[in-house]
Design goal:
elongated; disordered C terminus; six-stranded antiparallel sheet; mainly beta; 14% helix
Length: 348
């Protein structure tokens, strides 16, 4: 089996695991190819250079599987590196976030065996293709796996974005920006502006304004076979277009057109590949990761009687669950509160 490996240059905490990983590949007689800059980095931080069969310069390569070593940002770079080759990608998480790169380096031996046996599932993730009616920098890969964002630049004033869908006027957004997100990216920038969470295989996009001037400008969900055209006006004479964090400046009054790409990114997952809702994966504090669930409580007084307006006072609290049991701690505005005085609402 031929495996191509791409990674970031922030692996100092995983030196021993990387040594073990490359040794395991060598023991299994896997043909290993490593992206050039990552290989040079490994030669500088590992006790000895890793045993590889080839070094990949640029993106002209072919392999049965690509492995991304890093966080979700590295996975996005790997998706660009793979491009339209349709090579499935396994993300090994050595970074901060792990929605895309959900495998850990400590499980490397297990995954090498799975890859060799074909014991894995592949999810197909759609991409957005971007075109512009003005000069589009050739060095920018015109595809996005997470989202495309139109953002203001060099001004604190809002920008005006006239959106059309399949040639029909959709809305005129007065806001700090506009995000068009794939299901893959719906838990990223889109979620931070109160956009909807989309199931990864859903054939839709989310269109979410950033700090809209009008409260009636709410996020929308549209079909992913739609063609969205956005014309942007800005007092600064320019605006910023971001594709998965890669950005360029475009002149005001120019139009960008978004459509579904003709190819997709293939993501390797463990079978059965269940979708873990990201609302149930929350960081609480800086030291521990626990699974959390949003619970609605009715606040009650010491006599057990509900009080407040119309005999009912509702309080929204974040109740922490761990191993299927409530932890008894409630976090409100960053301060822990006791569970006492709150009763779980039936069916919540």
């Amino acid at each position: 089996m031929r495996i191509a490996i791409y990674g970031n240059t922030y692996q100092e905490r995983h030196i021993g695991e990387l040594v073990h990983f490359f040794d395991a590949l060598c023991r299994q007689n896997v043909w290993v190819e490593v992206e050039e800059s990552f290989y040079r980095y490994l030669c500088g931080v590992l006790p000895s250079p890793p045993v590889v069969n080839d070094i990949i310069r640029g993106s002209d390569f072919n392999a049965a599987i690509a492995i991304s070593i890093g966080g979700d940002g590295t996975f996005l770079h790997t998706a660009q590196w793979v491009g339209d080759k349709q090579i499935p990608i396994l993300g090994i998480n050595t970074g901060h976030l792990g929605y895309l790169a959900a495998t850990h380096m400590k499980d490397a031996d297990e995954w090498i065996g799975r890859l060799l046996k074909g014991d894995y599932d592949i999810e197909t993730r759609t991409l957005i293709e971007v075109e512009a009616d003005c000069h589009f920098a050739e060095e920018i890969w015109p595809y996005a796996l997470n989202e495309v964002a139109v953002l203001k630049q060099d001004t604190s004033s809002m920008i005006e974005m006239k959106a059309r869908i399949n040639g029909t006027p959709l809305a005129v957004y007065l806001a700090d920006g506009l995000i068009v997100s794939t299901p893959t990216g719906s838990t990223g920038y889109n979620l931070s502006v109160s956009g909807p969470i989309l199931e990864p295989s859903a054939p839709v996009w989310a269109v979410s304004p950033i700090a809209a001037h009008s409260l009636t400008m709410r996020p929308l969900v549209v079909r992913d076979d739609s063609v969205i055209a956005i014309t942007t006006c800005s007092r600064s004479g320019a605006y910023r277009l971001s594709l998965d964090g890669r950005f360029l400046s475009l002149p005001a009054e120019s139009t960008v057109t978004l459509r579904k790409a003709s190819f997709a990114t293939r993501v390797i997952k463990r079978p059965p590949s269940l979708y873990r809702h990201p609302a149930r994966q929350t960081h609480v504090g800086s030291r521990h990761k626990i699974t959390c669930k949003l619970i609605i409580y009715h606040e009650i007084n010491s006599n057990g009687c509900r009080h407040g307006h119309d005999g009912l006072r509702r309080s929204h609290r974040l109740g922490a669950y761990k191993n299927g049991r409530y932890s008894g701690r409630i976090f409100l505005h960053g301060e822990p509160r006791s569970r006492r005085g709150f009763r779980r609402r039936a069916g919540a």
